[in-house]
Design a protein that fits this description.
The chain has 446 residues and is an alpha/beta fold. 28% of the residues lie in helices and 21% in strands. It is built from eleven helices and 19 strands. Helix 9 runs parallel beside helix 10.
């Protein structure tokens, strides 16, 4: 259920009922992917998520601007999705993983620069009918700590004032923040920024990856038996609880889930957690990034492969040939959302819609199985209110308690016997055929 409280011209978006929020990122670059990996605004189902976040915009001369001319056209279609779901809210994200810190640091470095940025934010969001902003600064350093707080404070104040003067719902303010304890301590005044933010998206994935020399799951729920030193904090539960314990209200905190796997190339016969790795795994057929497999690519790679379960961390991994990949499946998603609800955190967010099996042709689970499962677990009461489903309220609400308590009978990812399409790309070397491909075998490290 949606609950909004108004005071002094301010809409308190964080008052949405606990665990009824699912924020979903749209990666605009996915529109440039080849063949069946191409994902456009028109592929978005507006009924799956409570909030959609468009990633990403840019900062030029301290002003918020679209990253490309093509993004401007996408903005119109993106926000038109609200015509199909009037409950939907849309945000524009600035920054991201590869954006760097310099533009943020310059913009936040003085009150004058921040004012230029904030006014440009309001102009752009209102011009294209966005409902809010997501600040994805990765990551503020020690010298940026107070500046980030000032930025959040001044954005909130400006949003409240503009909402009052324009007689419109005030713009939403969210931030995507680090899940690593050392980065949190260095870069954030947690209690202060939490006062000004509506939502805090904690990036609880990519704790580990093929940039390391041994295999490890990129998004464990809990600490693993092999974790030592600061690595004992590199897990979802530790990160969310630390943000809460440092002063962020639990209802503002969103758990991050990545609809992707992080893959390693093994360098020995060992294939367990902590096995030696020579570097990233092979490229995904569609995403084209070494060591990064969309959830549908993971289904493609692991055709007929047995999954393994990391019992203390509550997440799966699998191996095929010399490839090792950690990912989330139906069981681990269910466990994470049970944890989220038990601790009364506000909701979850997904990176990103284009990484789900959005065509329903790879994993034998229908369209968008990753996001659909999260929707069913988090939003059982919201479903009857959506424009496309107006008749099933009694059965939907009574069935909700059973949704999160029963683990699926088949914890493995379903596998799809699929041949990679014909385009000029290196194909993964495993047990499925790739006709008309530059099919390359893996190199073996002795």
């Amino acid at each position: 259920m949606w609950k909004l409280t108004l005071s002094a011209g301010k809409t308190s978006w964080s008052s949405i009922t606990s665990t009824s929020r699912l924020m979903c990122y749209y990666n605009s670059k996915a529109a440039d992917r080849p063949a069946m990996g191409k994902f456009r605004v028109s592929d978005i189902d507006p009924d799956k998520c409570t909030h959609l976040i468009f990633g990403f915009s840019d900062i030029i001369e301290n002003e918020l601007v679209p990253t490309t001319v093509n993004d401007v056209q996408q903005y119109f279609g993106f926000n038109a999705l609200k015509q199909r779901n009037p409950l939907l809210k849309t945000l524009l994200a600035v920054g991201g993983e590869k954006f760097g810190t310099e533009k943020f640091r310059t913009m936040a470095g003085s009150q004058k620069n921040r004012e230029v940025f904030i006014q440009s934010v309001i102009r752009l969001l209102r011009a294209f009918n966005f409902d809010g902003l997501d600040v994805d600064w990765r990551y503020p350093a020690e010298e940026d700590k107070q500046r980030f707080t000032e930025l959040c404070k001044e954005l909130e104040t400006a949003f409240v004032d503009e909402g009052t003067s324009s007689n419109q719902e005030r713009l939403i303010l969210a931030a995507s923040v680090s899940a690593e304890r050392s980065t949190i301590d260095a870069g954030y005044e947690v209690e202060e920024i939490a006062m000004h933010l509506d939502f805090i998206n904690v990036l609880t994935f990519d704790f580990h990856g093929p940039w390391e020399s041994v295999t490890a799951h990129h998004s464990p729920l809990f600490q693993g038996s092999q974790d030592t030193g600061d690595a004992i904090y590199s897990n979802t539960a530790s990160a969310l609880e630390y943000w809460r314990d440092q002063g962020a209200p639990e209802e503002k905190l969103n758990m991050g889930l990545g609809a992707f796997g992080r893959a390693f190339s093994l360098s020995s016969n060992s294939s367990a957690v902590g096995a030696p790795a020579s570097g990233p795994g092979e490229e995904g057929c569609y995403t084209g990034e070494e060591g990064f497999w969309a959830s549908y690519e993971t289904c493609l790679y692991l055709d007929g492969v047995q999954n393994h379960f990391i019992s203390d961390q509550k997440v799966p991994y699998a191996t095929t040939e010399n490839q090792w990949v950690g990912f989330d499946d139906t069981t681990s998603i269910n466990t994470k959302i049970n944890y989220l609800k038990a601790n009364k955190f506000g909701g979850a967010f997904v990176w990103s819609l284009d990484l789900d099996d959005f065509r329903g042709e790879f994993c034998n689970q229908g369209k968008c199985p990753f996001v659909t499962q999260l929707h069913n677990l988090l939003l059982p009461l919201l479903q009857p209110q959506l424009p496309t489903t107006t008749t099933a309220a009694p059965t939907t609400t009574t069935a909700a308690p059973t949704t999160t308590t029963a683990a699926p009978q088949q914890p493995q990812l379903p596998h799809y016997n699929h041949s990679c399409p014909d385009y000029n790309h290196s194909c993964p070397y495993n047990n499925h055929s790739c006709p008309n491909y530059n099919h390359t075998a893996p190199t073996t490290t002795q």
